[in-house]
Each structure stands twice: as structure tokens, then as C-alpha cells.
């Protein structure tokens, strides 16, 4: 049977699918993450995490959600912020490291990135969710986020765009990226559905960036966590750094304002280091 015939046969079977009254997991349903995905939470094995000598300990992977934190930490390093020194350790999600006992203690949701701040006088602070980590660090060091006492309008814009990314990116990664790159076989409906939404989001950005150098304004002082958190997903998508042939499929070159912004940020020394950040093994 040819590959086209196999795809057609699989798609036909999928079109005939009738959901049961109560869903149960299906073993061997394919896809890149089939071996690690389960409908249950909690630790699956004992795993002690290493700890370096710096105040901040990052447990992550260089996926878009991980790169966000790398970007902020490297930008803080670029400014010479002493308290932002960190050690970075690799959580291999394909090997199930995210289900290790100590990692689950930091993040009960078993997703990267996770951070521990050992500089707090009242004891180590555990932070999970990339947006929460970025806001925590930006506010802790009063860098890359407008303070309400300085400019309430810019702060509101920064927080709004930061939350926009957190709410929108699942359509890009879990939706478009998954069905375009990781699903066991091509499925037109989900690809069309999530491609449409991804392109709508790119259009939102393109229209906004037509009149703004960065997400909240012009000038280096307006470069904030909103840019970093959005660039890690959308910037890398349009620069074709995430999904093979994804930029062409999305006609990313047509979003000229997003392209300008993405290339400008990609050229920053801290961002270059962040994308290629070497993560230490946990074993």
C-alpha cells in the first residue's frame, strides 16, 4: 500500500470515529508524544534535581516556552544584574524528566520551565508557568517591565500583551504545530482550523507592529517581557526556526512588520545566547 493510500485509509477511519460516552485513553495512538502523554498528574518516578551555586536555578528545555526565560535571564546578564545569575538544567520531556519527583514538587503541572529562587530570606521560592516566571523576575529586578508608579498605560499594555501570548500560544504550539509537525498522519480539519487562527494572530501582531517598534512603543526602553514572550513563539515561527516549512505554509513573509520586529530581536546578543543556551544534564 502506498503512503498516500495509507493516509487516505487512516483518514477515512478517523472520519468514521464516533466518540464514546466516556472517553478512555487509547494505547499506541501515535504522535511524537504518545509515549509520555497520560491523563493523570503527579510524579512517576523518584528524581533528585541538581542545584548549582547561583541564586536562580532553572529547570527547562529550549522549546519556545523555555527560550522565553532564557531571553530574560540573558538580557539581565547583559545589564550586569548580579542577583539574576543562574544555573540552567535540562528537563528532557521526551524522556519523562518532567514527571520526576523533585520537578513535580516545583511544578505540579509537569511542564517546563520551572524556576527556584534561593535568594529569598524566607526560603526558596518555586515558580512555574513561563509568564509567571517572567513577571516575577522582571518585577524582582525592576527591568523590562514598566512599573505602575512610572507609567500605568505602558504597564497595562505590557501586561496585556504578555497575557495575550499566554492565552494565544496554545493555538500555535498545541494546535498548529502539533497537527502540522507531530501528528501521526495529516488531518485537514485541525490543520485548517489552527492555521487559520495562527494567521489571524499573526495579523493582529502585524497590524500592531505597523505603528510600534516594540510591543509597547518605540525605543530601547520599550523593549519588555512582552516582546520576549511573544518572540519566543511568533518570532521563531516566522523566521522558520520551529516547524520545518512552517513559515512557508503560513506565508510568514507577508507579515512584513512581524518580520522586521522578529529579525530585530533575533539580532540581540542576549537572544542569540538564549536560543543556543547550553543546559546541564540532571543526571
Automatic annotation (TrEMBL):
One MF term in the entry's GO annotations: oxidoreductase activity
Segments forming domain GST N-terminal: 54-145
Matching InterPro entries: Glutathione-S-Trfase_C-like, Glutathione-S-Trfase_C_sf, Glutathione_S-Trfase, Glutathione_S-Trfase_N, GST_C, Thioredoxin-like_sf
Family stated for the protein in its record: Belongs to the GST superfamily.
Compositional bias ranges of the Low complexity kind: 8-21
A Pfam family recorded for this sequence: GST_C
Protein's name in the database: Disulfide-bond oxidoreductase YghU
UniProt xrefs under CDD domains: GST_C_YghU_like, GST_N_Ure2p_like
Domain (GST C-terminal) ranges: 151-283
Enzyme Commission number, as recorded: 1.8.4.-
Naturally occurring in which organism (per UniProt): Psychrobacter pasteurii
UniProt keyword annotations, A-Z: Oxidoreductase
Region of interest called Disordered, as start-end residue ranges on this chain: 1-50
Keyword Oxidoreductase: yes
Amino acid at each position: 500500500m502506498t503512503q498516500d493510500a495509507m493516509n487516505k485509509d487512516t483518514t477515512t477511519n478517523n472520519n468514521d470515529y464516533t466518540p464514546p460516552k466516556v472517553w478512555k485513553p487509547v494505547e499506541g495512538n501515535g504522535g511524537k508524544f504518545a509515549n509520555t502523554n497520560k491523563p493523570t498528574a503527579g510524579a512517576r518516578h523518584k528524581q533528585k534535581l541538581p542545584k548549582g551555586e547561583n541564586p536562580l536555578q532553572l529547570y527547562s528545555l529550549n522549546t519556545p516556552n523555555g527560550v522565553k526565560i532564557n531571553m530574560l535571564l540573558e538580557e539581565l546578564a547583559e545589564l550586569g544584574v548580579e542577583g539574576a545569575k543562574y544555573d540552567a538544567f535540562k528537563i528532557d520531556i521526551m524522556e519523562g524528566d518532567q514527571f520526576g519527583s523533585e520537578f513535580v514538587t516545583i511544578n505540579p503541572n509537569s511542564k517546563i520551565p520551572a524556576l527556584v529562587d534561593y535568594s529569598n530570606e524566607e526560603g526558596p521560592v518555586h515558580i512555574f508557568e513561563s509568564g509567571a516566571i517572567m513577571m516575577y523576575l522582571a518585577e524582582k529586578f525592576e527591568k523590562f517591565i514598566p512599573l505602575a508608579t512610572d507609567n500605568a498605560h505602558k504597564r497595562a499594555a505590557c501586561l496585556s500583551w504578555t497575557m495575550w501570548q499566554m492565552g494565544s500560544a496554545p493555538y500555535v504550539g498545541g494546535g498548529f504545530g502539533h497537527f502540522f509537525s507531530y501528528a501521526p498522519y495529516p488531518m485537514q480539519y485541525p490543520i485548517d482550523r489552527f492555521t487559520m487562527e495562527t494567521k489571524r494572530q499573526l495579523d493582529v501582531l502585524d497590524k500592531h507592529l505597523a505603528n510600534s517598534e516594540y510591543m509597547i512603543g518605540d525605543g530601547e526602553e520599550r523593549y519588555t517581557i512582552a516582546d520576549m514572550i511573544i518572540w519566543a513563539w511568533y518570532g521563531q515561527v516566522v523566521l522558520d526556526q520551529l516547524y520545518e516549512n512552517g513559515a512557508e505554509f503560513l506565508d510568514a513573509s507577508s507579515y512584513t512588520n512581524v518580520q522586521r520586529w522578529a529579525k530585530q530581536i533575533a539580532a540581540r546578543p542576549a537572544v542569540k545566547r538564549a536560543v543556543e543556551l547550553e543546559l546541564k544534564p540532571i543526571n
